[in-house]
């Protein structure tokens, strides 16, 4: 949408605060049960995943469509950010407003960035004003592994889990002391440094620890292009500076009795364009998570886990030298309490959960946004395994002080046709709570906005014989009361001077995801393709910034100390706007990487992205990186 130039400073503040939304439950302490999923793809059936049921399960017993990105894959990827890493996974698309430090959105199966739940070590993150996670502030160097669960999970995680859940795990200490350190440099004067120490003591009173810290910076490149209302003709680069620290500590008081603490802090100072100006417009963002938990074996078949956590997502924007109109500040705080009980009944598991979540928003520049809301949640699920049959049923009630009670339910069934082939089918309901921006932002939000509601049905097939992995999933997710962003506002345009967000549309997220890999000697061939149709049924248009087809293909080679690979990222055309008037062209990116184990403790990495220097846009009039090279050296001692 187009805005008058005279309102640029105010509009920049609103755009930065709401972009993740417009461009397109508290969690359990999953750090405690099992945090070591560092296995190769050939062992995919034996991976343990926590997020799909909030309890450790072998992936072969999980009905939901899941994916694990393990530590080796992250290290070998040479990805510049977590968004870069996610872009190469099936079912996921991204949108960015420039380089790594700028605003990014992650779409799962065509769902908006604010229709997905993001967790770090079981702690839910995200801004209550935009409703989406601040992806740019999440440090990739702190991540041990990532679990992605596709499809609605509101019965497990409450509001916003319409498209899926992404859970990020930091490193957990185990065994002898381990020390790691890495340094790297690349295009755009990018520099990265990080180090960690972890381990555990033995005996009946086991103590485990893991501490990590990192720093990265880059001069970047101009974020905008001519045609963008924020374009700066002076051509200054939009770089960033990020520091982070994270840690996990746990202590076993007695057998089956464990207490622990996890934390993460990330500070990001990122530049952005704000029209013709020599002023250094920049945003300062702080992401802070902390959680304490107690894991207790109450009876031989009853395990209890209590977690208290707090997340702070603070952002201050400095768009001009004017101390009033050039400054905006919005702070979000979320406090969560969760009590989960897993009761084994033979080979089955009954799970009972209570959760309390309080969201608070404080803004000195936009006091109308300030306020809070609380949610009390009760949930129950039952996981059954009988021979070749798998069954899961779950129900949840989320009672909000703002929008009342929302009940969701899910039913899933799986059948092992053979030892290597499994079929699954599921149905689930979900909802998304309107964000504080959609409710209260002056001249934009409408306090009567209702939650969006989703109904998803899907079926899948999975094959895994240890050498070949194949999967196919079909999904049909119907969303009602979709909140859309319109400029000008179709009613009371004088009141809603920045347009408005309101419930009006019905949308369908429908598609097929195909993926597979096969090992041929020292080579592994892999690929995935998504054929989807994410449409707004009210206007019969494709949802903004989502392609009807996108894919990733790769060939990996590994023998001895050398590993190398080639990747091909593909996306069809997309529309940048809800009216489907502005089209973004399709693109294909070719990437190369290689790692070499110099000694048992030293390894080297080189990655060359976009080797053909492809020009493309993920958001209209915003630049993307050209060809880039990154070289790194890593030391690891154990």
Blueprint of the fold:
Elements: H1 8-22, E1 48-49, E2 57-58, E3 65-69, H2 71-77, H3 82-87, E4 92-96, E5 104-108, E6 116-120, E7 123-125, E8 143-150, H4 154-157, E9 164-170, E10 178-186, E11 190-200, E12 207-221, E13 238-254, E14 257-271, E15 282-299, E16 302-318, E17 327-345, E18 348-362, E19 371-386, E20 389-400, E21 404-416, E22 421-432, H5 436-440, E23 452-464, E24 468-486, E25 500-520, E26 523-536, E27 541-542, E28 549-559, E29 562-571, E30 574-575, E31 583-584, E32 587-597, E33 602-609, E34 628-637
Parallel strand pairs: 6-9
Antiparallel strand pairs: 1-2, 3-8, 4-5, 6-7, 8-9, 10-11, 10-34, 11-12, 12-13, 13-14, 14-15, 15-16, 16-17, 17-18, 18-19, 19-20, 20-21, 21-22, 22-23, 23-24, 24-25, 25-26, 26-27, 26-28, 28-29, 29-32, 30-31, 32-33, 33-34
Main location: membrane
Keywords: Cell outer membrane, Ion transport, Membrane, Receptor, Signal, TonB box, Transmembrane, Transmembrane beta strand, Transport
Domain TonB-dependent receptor-like beta-barrel: 194-611
Please provide a written account of the structure.
Pfam families: Plug, TonB_dep_Rec_b-barrel. This is TonB-dependent receptor. Its main location: membrane. A hairpin with a 7-residue loop joins β1 and β2 (about 55-60). The protein has a 22-stranded antiparallel beta barrel. The protein is globular. The chain contains five helices and 34 strands. With about 650 residues, the protein is mostly beta strands. The protein has helices at about 10-20, 70-75, 80-85, 155, 435-440, and strands at about 50, 55-60, 65-70, 90-95, 105-110, 115-120, 125, 145-150, 165-170, 180-185, 190-200, 205-220, 240-255, 255-270, 280-300, 300-320, 325-345, 350-360, 370-385, 390-400, 405-415, 420-430, 450-465, 470-485, 500-520, 525-535, 540, 550-560, 560-570, 575, 585, 585-595, 600-610, 630-635. It has one domain: TonB-dependent receptor, beta-barrel domain (Maltoporin, Chain A), CATH 2.40.170. About 5% of the residues lie in helices and about 55% in strands.
